[in-house]
Design a protein that fits this description.
By secondary structure, the protein is an alpha+beta fold. It is built from ten helices and nine strands. A hairpin with a 2-residue loop joins strand 6 and strand 7. Helix 1 runs parallel beside helix 9, helix 4 packs across helix 10 and helix 9 packs antiparallel against helix 10. The chain binds flavin mononucleotide.
């Protein structure tokens, strides 16, 4: 399966079969999450993972097993977390294990206690783990409708050619089209899809189009996790094409509109 196929096959799973995750699947997924390959990310920060049993979320039925990640709250920790956790999510997808990114719909104090969160650390998200049920619960069906989970924005509304005045077309993106498509199908909090990308010759600039209400008082920005997820998809898709990629912060970038901030760039070779 190509990365794009894997990305398109994934969806948030909120209704599980009720069968416990097999011991070998639990161990294999946790070992992968802790591996150097999974931890490697452009920001160089590490995520500590813990499996938690006997937990629940108001949107999840059919499993009580969760995977939670914590890390020091440092600059760009959101990007690192999104990048690393999405690798784990895609690995789970390839293994037939269902997941849902959860930042909000959980008893946060209970989860934070269980991961032994210390001062200066964050536990950005958790995911349930289990085998998807054949049918979705009514609540899951309603939730998906509520956030239009089956749809994504159009290519030309989120990807740009040289500057924000020119939409990028698949024709112009050429052999990079599928890599951009892999970004377009990323999951995001409330399906807001805040990523905006500008292709400037051999460089892709990432921006975040902020929606209201996603930055906490401490400056923690949930939508920046979405950008980390999108970064991982582009990184993997380009590597699958045999390209080498270098992440960097550019000194000068195309100017974006209101509420849209430059985040990071990627040089493709
Ligand atoms: C950072 C992040 C946080 C999320 N938090 C929640 C959450 O708290 N509860 C929930 O039910 N879904 C949550 N989601 C799942 C999104 O609603 C979902 O990814 C989006 O609607 C797209 O649907 P899909 O994942 O099925 O493609 C979150 C997703 C991301 C990326």
């Amino acid at each position: 399966m190509s990365l794009l196929e894997l990305v398109k096959a994934r969806r948030s799973v909120r209704t599980f079969s009720g069968d416990s995750l097999k011991k070998e699947d639990r161990e294999a997924l946790l070992a992968y999450a802790q591996s150097d390959a999974a931890q490697d990310n452009p920001c160089g920060q590490k995520v500590t993972w813990k499996l938690l049993e006997g937990f629940s979320s108001p949107v999840i039925v059919g499993t009580d097993l969760f995977l939670a990640g914590k890390m020091p709250q440092a600059t760009d920790a959101e990007l690192a977390f999104g990048f690393v956790m999405e690798k784990v999510v895609l690995k789970a997808q390839a293994m037939g294990i269902g997941t849902t990114w959860i930042a909000g719909t959980m008893d946060r104090p209970a989860f934070e206690k269980a991961v032994e969160l210390s001062e200066g650390e964050v536990m950005p998200c958790v995911t349930p783990l289990g085998y998807p049920a054949k049918n979705m619960s009514l609540r899951e069906t309603m939730m998906r409708k509520g956030v239009k989970a089956e749809t994504r924005m159009d290519f030309g509304d989120i990807f740009f050619d040289g500057d924000f005045a020119h939409a990028l077309t698949p024709e112009k993106a050429g052999d990079l089209t599928d890599a951009f498509e892999a970004v377009r199908f990323s999951p995001s909090a409330v399906n807001k899809q805040p990523w905006r990308l500008v292709l400037d010759r051999d460089t892709v600039h990432f921006y975040e189009a902020h929606s209201r209400g996603y930055v906490s008082e401490s400056g923690w920005d949930v939508q920046k996790i979405d950008i980390g997820i999108a970064m991982l998809h582009l990184d993997c898709a380009l590597k699958e094409l045999g390209k080498s990629v270098t992440w960097f912060k550019a000194a000068q970038v195309p100017q974006a509109g209101e509420n849209t901030d430059y985040i990071i760039s990627l040089k493709v070779q």
